[in-house]
Amino acid sequence: MSVIYLLICISIVLAATFLYIFIRAVRSGQFDDDYTPSVRMLFEDELKKKGNNPKTKIKTENQD
Amino acid sequence: MNVQNCFHCGNDIVKQEEIIFDEKSFCCVGCKTVYEIFSQNDLTCYYDFENAPGATPQDIKGKYDFLENEDIVTKLLDFQEDSTHIVSLYIPHIHCSSCIWILENLQKLQSGVSTSQVNFHEKKVRITYDPKKTNLKEMVLLLSAIGYEPYISLENYENKKQEVDRTLFYKIGVAFFSFGNIMLLSFPEYFEVGEFWIEQYKVFFRWLIFALSLPPFFYSASGYYVSAWKSIKSGLLNIDIPIALGIVVMFVRSTIDIVFDYGQGFFDSMCGLIFFMLLGKLFQQKTYNFLSFERDYKSYFPIAITKILANGTEEPVQVYDIEKGDRLLIRNQELIPVDGILISPEASIDYSFVTGEAVPIIKKSGDKVYAGGKQIGKVIEMEVLHSVSQSYLTQLWSNDVFQKKVDQKYKTITDTISRYFTPALLLLAFVSFGFWVFRDVSTAFNVFTAILIVACPCALALTAPFTLGNVLRIMGNRKLYLKNATVIEQLAKVDTIVFDKTGTITTNKKTSITYEGEPLNESELKLLKNALRGSNHPLSRRLYDFIPHQEKIETTAFEEIIGKGIFATFGEQKVKLGSSQFLQHMSENTHKKTKVHVEINGIYKGSYVFNNQYREGLEQLFENLEKQYNLVVLSGDNDGERKILEKMLPDSTTLVFNQKPEQKLQYIEQLQKQGRNVMMVGDGLNDAGALAQSNVGISISENVNVFSPACDGILDAVQFSKINYFMRLSKNAMKTIMMSFGLSLLYNLIGLSYAVTGNLLPIVAAIIMPLSTITIVSFVTLMSNFYARK
């Protein structure tokens, strides 16, 4: 049953890793702009197969 | 594709000016050029994301010459190194995904640009470029050429790098980490007390929980201790005192519990509480990054202006370096940054920033021109009298009364409640302690701490942030952008609304006259114009100017009945003009519009309608507001429109004319001394003082991206007629808060009934805490959305 010590340690370390990743993400500015990246990621494909079927409409009139 | 609209900018195309290029129609050469640039560079994808996303490039010849000046450029850059320069430019036109796309592909248009990144909310683009291959001026010119002209003002010049405050995110992250882990670890003890395995491991579990609760207790919740301490020092009892007290008591009691093996403690509830309250804070912290509420003249002023040197050459000079005696060149639409004397023969200067008067003022050579005016028309020259800091406008601005008072501490509704809540809570805790202490000392301590724990006003403290945060968003969606959530509370308390006239209840568009009825032929128009010639009535004068030039004929008889109309005879022909009563022509809702009716030779022809320049829905709005508010119209203009306004607006409206900016401010002050809560609705710099002085200053803006004075909120002009709705919504928001206060007090009572009798188990606390939070949050969200729909 003493395996519980190991298991809990692992789970806490895992959670702490997530916390660390979160803090790093905040620090790098990922939470400063929560809108532009969501639009930006849709552009990449558009550029490569330009000319084929570029008639994708993205509706982004509003900013909240 | 709609043929009527420009392929690039979406504006209507005037048929004669239509330009067809590449089978697409454009409204002007500018738009076509932008399209050409894009198509040559394989960037026509721009038009795929959004229909007609572009803007017509403006003529900017010479405007950005100051960017050749190294010192100025250095000030504007974010980062500077030999081969890399980084600059952030504010571009008001950014509005859709096409904008993001084109601005992030700048490297295709300009060699030397390595990356460019858009921040959509702030409407900023951050460009990294190699200064050896290109420079800032080229960049700005390119952006302007494709319709994305950056806005560079004096404010940028002094820009310090803004530190982004992200501590709240860290605190939430830490609190959530501990909350989640502690919940898992406390779970076993909720149900099975005395079970074999739990007995075996509970020491390990409890001390682990203790260790995990340290970061939220010392780090995440630190803001509450600071705020509670400050509020005790200043003698105000705000909501953070019971919160901080609750958290500290929870921590201390739980630690004692586990040290002496009394139980598992309340660490789970404590972390949950901290986490939920920080979440509430985040929710309330809605800010409109692309708007700025704290503006002063610096955001209006240009960075540099063209100076004429003694040898006649032109040179851009930083405005702070302008000295008395310098000669300056002011181009069309450029702002005059300093007081001076006009050298050019004539200038027409638009002082709407300063006075609110929309009509440009004509100045002759030798006249004094003041800073803040905008030259309309051709290039002028002027000689400087005062430097920037000594000019009239800047001095006005530096005047203390024009600054929004920061120390004007506003007591929020939560603080008001907690003024009663905190003493009551402490009283109850001590009374119960006193009651139990004679029976059983250890129970007395239990009860005392349990009361402070369970009454910790978590739900109470969350009510206002969630309601106001939600209402703030709803209003934002409807184009009223408020500075922060407390403005809503103040909005709900307003009892007097003061409107500025020019630019606020009127639009900036010129008055137009339209004709309704049977069309008039040439000879009839001739009669009409000649009949009008003799009259001096303002409406006659305007109508006279409106009717195209006609041959002059003399009247045989002319009679003007004051306040009614004109009766003129030309030989056989008779013309009768005037109000509907005068013509005995019954027309529907005559008082709503200014009309001049026409009757020729006894036959009623129709009427000229004077579309006043007042905003649509003004009358309706005032009629609705009148029932609950005192209304005042405060104008910098003369009282020429008093008659029209009196007719249009409810009788109770106070009209005040000829008010200078300082007088407007004093007027508001006067009202406040009478105990009124004043909301000022204005625009332009001339209202800046009044906006700052009022309890709530709302600035009306035709385009929220251009600049408005310091204020508490910016209202998009198209929503002007909805002011009533916003006022009602703010009141309902306060009603929602009161209701949910009741609800959370109910939870407190239930919790207290456990606490007072000494039966508070950790599991009860762990259930009540999140349950009350969730009910409160969903209640206020539902209620405020419900009210918003009304």
Automatic annotation (TrEMBL), chain A:
Q: Could you tell me which species this protein originates from?
A: Flavobacterium luminosum
InterPro entries on file? Cyt_oxidase_maturation_cbb3 (IPR004714)
Which superkingdom heads the taxonomic lineage of this protein's source? Bacteria
Q: Which Pfam families does the annotation name?
A: FixS
UniProt-recorded name of the protein: Cbb3-type cytochrome oxidase assembly protein CcoS
TrEMBL record, chain B:
Methyltransferase: present as a keyword of the record? no
User: Domain of life of the organism in this record?
Assistant: Bacteria
- Annotated HMA domain residues: 85-151
Subcellular location(s) of the protein: Cell membrane
Which topology term describes how it sits in the membrane? Answer: Multi-pass membrane protein
Q: Which SUPFAM superfamilies match?
A: Calcium ATPase, transduction domain A, Calcium ATPase, transmembrane domain M, HAD-like, HMA, heavy metal-associated domain
- What keywords is this UniProt entry annotated with? Cell membrane, Ion transport, Magnesium, Membrane, Metal-binding, Phosphoprotein, Translocase, Transmembrane, Transmembrane helix, Transport
Show the stretches that span the lipid bilayer: 168-187, 207-227, 239-260, 266-283, 420-438, 444-472, 737-757, 763-788
| One protein family per Pfam | ATPase-cat_bd
Q: What is its main location?
A: membrane
Q: Which family does it belong to?
A: Belongs to the cation transport ATPase (P-type) (TC 3.A.3) family. Type IB subfamily.
**Protein name per its UniProtKB record:** Heavy metal translocating P-type ATPase metal-binding domain-containing protein
